[in-house]
Every structure is written in C-alpha cells, then in structure tokens.
Amino acid sequence: MTKRLIRVLFIASEAEPLVKVGGLGDVAGALPKALQEASRGPSCSVDLDVRLCIPFYSCINSEKLSLQRIDKFSIPTKKNPVPGEIYQGSLDGLPLYLIKGKPISESPTIYNLDTEKDGEKFAFFSLAVLEFIRNSDWKPDIIHANDWHTALTLHCLRIAQETEIVFKKIHGIITLHNLPFMGAGTEKALAKYQITPSKDPALPEWAKTLPLPMGLSAAQKIIAVSPNYAHELFSAEFGNSLQSFFKANSEKVMGIINGLDCQAWNPQSDSKIRQTFDVSSLDKRIENKESLLHDLHLDPDNKIPLLVSISRMDQQKGVDIILAGLQKIANLKWRAVILGSGNPRLEKAVKEMEKKHPDRVKAINRYDPTLSHRLYAAADIYMMPSRYEPCGLSQLIAMHYGCVPVARNTGGLHDTIQQTNPGRPGTGYLFQKADAISFSTKLSTAIKDYKNKSFWQKIQVKGMKQDFSWQKSARAYLDVYSELS
Ligand code: ADP
Asked: Is the pLDDT of residue 7 over 80?
C-alpha cells in the first residue's frame, strides 16, 4: 500500500515534558507522539510528518534537544518590528520547533495574571509561526492549533491566504480544551501587531476581537476534547454565548476524547506507590490505603471508605460542592483527602472543613504529583462534581487505578464513566446537577455499594479494563487529517 504523506504542524502554548502547566501540556506532549506511532502501523494509509512547535520559554531545559537555530526574522508592529528566532530540534524522535523572542523570554510565567503580557506573547508567537512557514522549505498541509493562545495563527492564516500563494493550500484545525478562556484582555496586543478583527457574521460583535473565537471562525474543524463537550457547546449552559456561532457551524464541530499516558500512569509499575497491583491482584491495593492513612495521621480503620479529590481549586471543579456534599453525609462513615491549590477562598474553605473534622478530613493545599499517585492508588472513591469538564484526566487516572469516580454527568465525564445501577456495576457513578444534594445523594449510594465487596470489585475491574490509551484518539485525529488534506 502506498501511503499518502500528510505534514502537520502542531502548535501549542505548552507541551510535556518541556513545559507543563495543565491538561493542555499533557495533550500537546502525548498526542503528536501518538499520531506518529499510529501512522507507522502497516494498516494506516497515512504517512504522517508531524512536528511540534511551542514558545521557547526561559524555563525550557534545552540540553537534550539538539537545538539548532534555523531562522531569524522580525514581526512587524505599528511601531518597531519585534525580532525573533526559530530553533529546530528533536524531542525523543519528534521534530520540534521552538520560537524565541522578547515577548516570550520576558514573560515571568507561562500564563500571567496580566493578560496584556500574555496577549503580546501569544500574538507574537502566532505570527512567528506563519513567518516560519513563509521562510521554510518545509510546509505543512495542516496547522493544528490548541486553545486561544495559538488560535490567532489560524485567523492570520486565513487573512494571509487571500494574498500569499504560499499559504493557499494549508488547512487549519483547532482543538478546544477550554472554551471560557478566550484571550480576554489582549486588545492592545492585537492592535500593536495589526491583527484585524474577524469579519465572520456568525460571531457576536464582542467575539470578533477575541483570539479564540477568531481562531474558531477561521478553523476548518473545531475538535472539542470529548464528543459530549462538543455537543454541549450548542447549549446556553456551556456555549459561553457562542452557541449560535457553533450552531451555524455545526458541520465543522466534533469531539475526540483525550487519551491517558499509560506509561506514566500504570499501577503495575508505578514507582511512586507503596504496592503495585493490577486487575488480578486488587487485594494488594489495601496496602496503599493503609500506608497513606498512616502517613496522613488519619484513622487507620481500612474498612471505612476513603474519598479523594485532586484538582485545581477552582469554581469549575466544584470544590465547594464537595465540601457542602460531605457535610450533608456527615452521619455516614468516610474519610476524605482533598489535594489542590488555587483560589485562596476555596483553599481556606477546605482548611476550615479539616478543622471541623480533624479525624476524617485532610486538606493539603499544594501541587504534589507524588502524593497524587499515592492517592489514586489508595482511595476507594474519586470525587469530581465539576461544573463543566471538557474532557477530564483525573477520572481516567482514578478508574485506571481502581478508584471509583463519583462525578457530574457532564462533558468528558459523561463519555468516559459508565453509570452503576442497582445490581448492575458500571465504572463509576454519575449525577446530573452541580449541587450538594445531587452529589451527596450519589456519594451515599456509592458508599453503600462499597460495603458489598464483590459488587465493588466488579466496578473497579470494569474501570481498570477500559482502553484509555492515546492510540484510539490518535486514529480519530488521523481520520480528520485525511479528510481535510
Ligand atoms: P484540569 O486539566 O482541568 O486541571 P484534569 O482532570 O483534566 O483537570 O487534569 C488535572 C491533572 O492535574 C490530573 O492529572 C491531576 O492528578 C493533576 N493535579 C491537579 N491538582 C493537583 C495537585 N494539587 N497535585 C498533583 N496533581 C494535581
């Protein structure tokens, strides 16, 4: 079989292991590699040449990347042009481009509270991507953007296509990880870099000057990170006032679920946990629970269900719902560990809950990857009452580690968790409304079911046996690339 060559430039604001702040970094780190692997299979009709391009932040350790400067350029602005450089290297066999320039190196953190700084940085990066393509012998067939930070590349590509033949045949697609973050506060940067507003009549007026909607409008495909989140974009609850735009463009909206890095998250070989285990040795799991209860100075009774949450302290994640829900079932026996940092108000509320129930609640306000592995491997129930959840990674990890999720029936949670009904094990528990009553009612059902050991083990095993690998998602993305080019 002769394979068809498709060249893809994958652009993002972060990518593991170079730089990671959140879930986007996981995806941009894992998906290009999974795409490479999927296209190497003998049954795949695509010969994929995928290359990753991210900003060259000062925190990136470039030692093992074999970097070489391949181009110098300058991006015109209203006043003086801003110079930049592009470096080429390799990340474990994946071709890599890093874009350097003052707006990137002078930014103190990857994302700033000062949205003007971020606007400047990502406007510069987005235009630099096009400048690189203009000058390079290697031209992509597809530019694959991610979220608002790189959405402007697609908008500016559209404009450049009107006059520059070099861009004519390039397709633009965007993966949507988080709709509410649209790039507000970037007006000055857009003006400075002379990026003109979108003229798309399907966009509301306010959205025509925001990077994400501008990119969504220019993209030929909008891929939400789960099919159900794609569906939710059409609703007033989740559409963030762009639902009419999505409806008008429904043929280009779709969803592909994110995968899980099954090497980093493998209970059979995880060096961060006390006792490794798999589906056939679930009983060993209890050792993880006992050691954790001991180390956190919680009641050592291992028969009491251990509930955990590991997340950013953010309204989105429903931390307040967890606290109010636990309060409602204070009469039941449970222990809870809440790990997370972020919003100081929520952090304080969690600490107060701990003070109120020192014997049964542990609040840990920090980012602690090692502890997170131990919690997934030890806990019985994972609490995830998200107000919205484009895909969600925590529930995938939890199920992979035999920790049963109790989650809101929204976004990717709907797609990845199968409901448990009386006498019929699923892979977790789903509830409808983002409120304490709905959450605590479902949680108490789970706590009751937990006492039935054989039933509970069926839920755990079913969850652990699901295929959350990136390969499945990569094949779906390959189909999109094939369809476009
Ligand atoms: P989001 O990307 O919206 O923050 P996800 O559920 O998709 O949420 O992914 C969150 C990831 O970050 C998970 O891997 C979770 O374990 C991890 N995480 C969140 N908070 C912490 C923390 N305080 N310590 C360690 N890991 C954390």
From this structure: yes
* pLDDT score for 249: 98
- For residue 385 the two structure tokens come to 């009452």
Tokens of 30: 């894992």
The mean pLDDT value of the chain amounts to: 96
| pLDDT value of residue 21 | 86
- For 441, counting Cβ atoms within 10 Å of its Cβ (0-12 exposed, 13-18 middle, 19+ buried), the class is middle
310 lines ligand 1 (CB under 6 A): yes
Instruction: Name the amino acid, one letter, at 322.
Output: I
In 3D space, the residue among 309, 366, 354 whose CA is nearest the CA of residue 327 turns out to be: 354
What is the atom index within ligand 1 of the atom nearest the CA of 312? 20
Q: Around Cβ 239, how many Cβ atoms within 10 Å? A: 16
- How far, in Å, CA of 94 to CA of 1, rounded? 24
What's the residue count for the chain? 485
pLDDT of residue 42: 83
pLDDT value at residue 22? 82
Largest CA distance in the chain: 71
- The residues, ordered by sequence, that sit 6+ positions from 21 with a Cβ below 8 Å of its Cβ are 14, 110, 111
Are 394 and 411 spatial neighbours (Cβ–Cβ below 8 Å)? no
Burial per residue of 126-136, b for 16 or more beta-carbon CB atoms within 10 angstroms, e otherwise: bbbbbbbbeeb
The rounded distance, in Å, linking the Cα atoms of 161 and 453 is: 62
Instruction: Give yes or no for a contact between 232 and 410, defined as CB atoms under 8 angstroms apart.
Output: yes
Beta carbons within 10 angstroms of residue 178's beta carbon? 19
* pTM of the predicted model over 0.90: yes
The finding on whether 392 has its CB within 6 A of some atom of ligand 1 is yes
Q: What is the Cα–Cα distance from 352 to 349, expressed in whole angstroms?
A: 5
Alpha-carbon distance of 336 to 359, in angstroms, equals: 10
Q: What is the pLDDT of residue 9?
A: 98
Tell me, using a 6 A CB cutoff, whether residue 312 lines ligand 1. yes
Q: Please tell me the residue having the least CA distance from ligand 1 atom 22.
A: 367
Mean pLDDT on 401-430: 98
User: How far apart, in Å, do the first and last CA atoms of the chain sit?
Assistant: 18
